[in-house]
């Protein structure tokens, strides 16, 4: 997969991710408008917590990171072997998910009581949450099946269709909310919304299955066979999910610590949402495309091609990440002010979120390049090293959380996240270099020097631009992009 093709796929995946985020924002606005912030919204968010957790875990690429390298290795050997492996893996996955779903439906009252013990004081609220949670839990089978089919299509370099699937989920949710509003459904909106969530999973899985059939790849359910390949695959998947789960653990621990400061949980939530936007569009897109391209090159034992692909992805991701970091840092206050400072939102909250965002924005380059190093290790069928790096990064972050909280309050969390992120990144880079899986090429060094210089110069200019309203903010960002991107593209080309 040559340089220009990698860039094309990254922009396609990033584009669909951006579209999905826009529709996700519309969905959130409708949920707030129709469900409000009370009994109905509490039930919906509690019921969606479990399937959403699985979606987040798989969305981080744990399933794809394990399956794609093994599938690619089988394809290089024989098309029949790869099909047999995929059929067997898929059959085991569906059987396990069916068992988990049945058990979950049976013990849902216990699960809901554990996750939302406060609902027990309102029997009607608890009973409705259990019912809606059972409906929502059916989504688990289809979203995991969609993730698996997407992994196969990614292995065939079919990235855009897979990246568009979250848009379908958001469209189904938006449609259900509009229908419920039109019908004036009251509490029945929860049934309409949960049905839409499940149907979106069925539709996503059907679309990807149809695309595989169009490619003459006859995936089907068979009697599962336990062999060394499946044993290895599920062992790696377990380790991968464990490592991915550390991100969730990090959030939980940070939330527990800042819960002692009034308003801090909300401040960090909004700050993190702003930082996750460019990371999802750039970092996750790079990781998705790079996993397949590097897996192919490693299967062919072509290390020079691996280095070319890594460096191409490195340059393109940094070309986009650095201006995002600069923009979020310099324009933090006007961004938060003009997006959120309405109604009950105070200027004090704007300042608090902006300060957290300024600090947290500094970790964006580490988050993005982390995708390059970790996906390289996954492509080399090493899932243990990324997990070790997550444990080390989490430990460092927690040390800063606990050590600094009494001095700088909630800001200890973004500081710890930044330090822990770079420590994790350094560990991954060291392992890749030591095993000769990564090498910075001279072209990349020259391009990075140019990107950094250009970003710093524009940041200095941007600092003195007075942004007095939303339209000025939009215009400032637009002018920044119009100046930065053409020069950055020339730097990338001429380096």
Can you give keywords for this protein?
single chain; 495 residues; mainly alpha; 2 domains; 21 helices; 0% strand; globular
3D structure, described in words:
By secondary structure, the chain is an all-alpha fold. The protein has two domains: 1-225, no CATH class; 245-495, no CATH class. The protein has 21 helices and no strands. The protein has helices spanning 3-35, 39-47, 49-59, 62-77, 79-106, 108-115, 123-137, 139-155, 159-163, 165-183, 189-214, 228-258, 264-299, 303-330, 332-340, 347-361, 364-379, 384-408, 412-434, 442-463, 470-494. It starts with a helix and ends with a helix. The mean pLDDT is 84.
Q: List SSEs in N-to-C order.
A: HHHHHHHHHHHHHHHHHHHHH
Structural class: mainly alpha
The count of helical stretches stands at 21
Major pleated sheet = none
End-to-end distance: 21 Å
């Amino acid at each position: 997969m040559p340089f220009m093709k990698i860039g094309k796929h990254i922009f396609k995946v990033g584009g669909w991710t951006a579209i999905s985020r826009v529709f996700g924002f519309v969905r959130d606005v409708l949920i707030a408008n129709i469900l409000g912030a009370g009994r109905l919204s509490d039930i919906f968010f509690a019921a969606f917590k479990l399937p959403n957790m699985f979606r987040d875990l798989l969305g981080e690429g744990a399933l794809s990171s394990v399956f794609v390298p093994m599938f690619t290795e089988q394809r290089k050997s024989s098309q029949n072997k790869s099909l047999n492996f995929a059929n067997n893996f898929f059959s085991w996955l569906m059987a396990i998910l069916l068992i988990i779903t049945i058990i979950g439906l049976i013990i849902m009252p216990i699960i809901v009581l554990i996750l939302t013990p406060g609902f027990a004081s309102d029997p009607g609220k608890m009973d409705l949450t259990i019912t809606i949670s059972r409906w929502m839990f059916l989504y688990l089978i289809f979203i995991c099946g969609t993730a698996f089919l997407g992994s196969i299509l990614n292995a065939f370099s079919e990235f855009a269709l897979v990246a568009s699937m979250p848009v379908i989920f958001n469209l189904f949710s938006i449609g259900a909310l509009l229908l419920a509003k039109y019908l004036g459904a009251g509490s029945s909106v929860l049934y309409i919304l949960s049905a839409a969530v499940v149907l979106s999973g069925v539709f996503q899985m059907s679309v990807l299955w149809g695309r595989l059939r169009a490619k003459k790849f006859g995936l089907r359910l068979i009697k599962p066979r336990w062999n060394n390949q499946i044993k290895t695959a599920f062992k790696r998947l377990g380790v991968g999910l464990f490592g991915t789960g550390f991100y969730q653990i990090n959030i939980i621990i940070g939330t527990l610590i800042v819960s002692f400061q009034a308003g801090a949980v909300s401040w960090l939530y909004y700050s993190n949402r702003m930082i996750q936007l460019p990371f999802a569009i750039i970092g996750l897109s790079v990781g998705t495309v790079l996993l397949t391209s590097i897996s192919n090159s490693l299967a062919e034992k072509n290390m020079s091609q691996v280095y070319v692909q890594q460096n191409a992805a490195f340059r393109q991701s940094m070309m986009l990440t650095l201006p995002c970091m600069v923009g979020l840092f310099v324009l933090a206050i006007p961004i938060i002010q003009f997006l959120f400072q309405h109604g009950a939102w105070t200027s004090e909250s704007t300042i608090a979120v902006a300060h957290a965002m300024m600090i947290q924005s500094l970790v964006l380059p580490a988050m993005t390049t982390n995708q390059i190093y970790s996906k390289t290790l996954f492509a080399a069928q090493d899932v243990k090293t990324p997990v070790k790096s997550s444990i080390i990064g989490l430990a460092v972050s927690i040390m800063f959380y606990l050590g600094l909280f009494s001095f700088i309050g909630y800001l200890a969390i973004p500081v710890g996240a930044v330090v822990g992120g770079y420590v994790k990144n350094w560990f991954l880079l060291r392992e890749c270099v030591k095993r000769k899986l990564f090498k910075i090429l001279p072209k990349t060094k020259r391009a990075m020097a140019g990107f950094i210089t250009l970003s710093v110069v524009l940041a200095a200019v941007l600092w003195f631009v007075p942004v007095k309203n939303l339209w000025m903010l939009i215009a400032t960002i637009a002018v920044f992009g119009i100046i930065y991107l053409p020069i950055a593209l020339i730097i990338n080309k001429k380096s």
